[in-house]
Structures are given as C-alpha cells and as structure tokens.
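Hi V.,

Quick status before I head out on leave. The structure for the redesign project is tokenized and pasted below; the design run finished overnight.
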C-alpha cells in the first residue's frame, strides 16, 4: 500500500509540475520549481522502495529524508511568508492540500525501510 501511495504521489506531482511549469511558470516560479522537486523525490523514493535491495534502500532513505525536510521547510516557509507561494505546492502548509499525507508519508516510508532492512538482515 505504501508503494502504491508513493507511486500515486509521483504521478500526481509529475503531472502537476509539468502543467504548472509549461503553462504559467512566471506566476509562481518558486512554488512550481518546488513541485518539480517534489515530483523527482517521489519518483526516486518509489523506485528505491520497489527495488528493495540494500543499495536501493539507502537511496530510499535519502529520498524520504529529503522529502521530510522539504515538507517541514516548505510548510514552515509557506506559513511564515504566504506571499512567496501565490500557488500551492505539494508541500505547502505541510501538505494540507493533500490531507497532510506528504507530511506523514516520509515517516511511514522511513519506518517501512527500517522494518524491511531488519527482515532482510534476519534471513
């Protein structure tokens, strides 16, 4: 289920950022570039989680960590300076537009990676 949610967010963030960047980049360049960054992070995390090898788990840990830091930083910045975000990103207001899933998802991802690494180490 976790991988399916990551894949869905990867697809949604890619589509959203492509439309935003392609149609009205000049309206909110920071927000749209952050949407593109979120899309890349979701794609990398999805691939890392799907593969499941030790190396891909490390990649997924880095992606999930970047995602968590991004959600917290962009969420705080969008609260402190709303004018900088005339259009929302996936991570604006801690992912409020997406039911706060972007805030919870990297935590669940990191916990899942830790669990799967422990199971892999037990075999």
């Amino acid at each position: 289920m976790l991988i399916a949610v990551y894949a869905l967010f990867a697809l949604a963030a890619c589509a959203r950022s492509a439309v935003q960047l392609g149609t009205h980049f000049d309206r909110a360049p920071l927000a749209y570039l952050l949407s593109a960054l979120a899309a890349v992070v979701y794609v990398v995390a999805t691939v890392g989680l799907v593969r499941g090898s030790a190396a891909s788990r490390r990649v997924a840990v880095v992606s999930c960590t970047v995602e968590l830091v991004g959600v917290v930083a962009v969420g705080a910045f969008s609260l402190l300076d709303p004018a900088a975000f005339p259009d929302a990103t996936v991570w604006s207001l801690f992912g409020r537009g997406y039911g706060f899933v972007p805030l919870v998802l990297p935590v669940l991802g990191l916990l899942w990676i830790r669990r799967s690494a422990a199971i892999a180490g037990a075999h």
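Above is the designed sequence. The helical segments are 2-24, 29-51, 54-80, 101-122.

G. will cover questions while I'm gone.

Best,
W.
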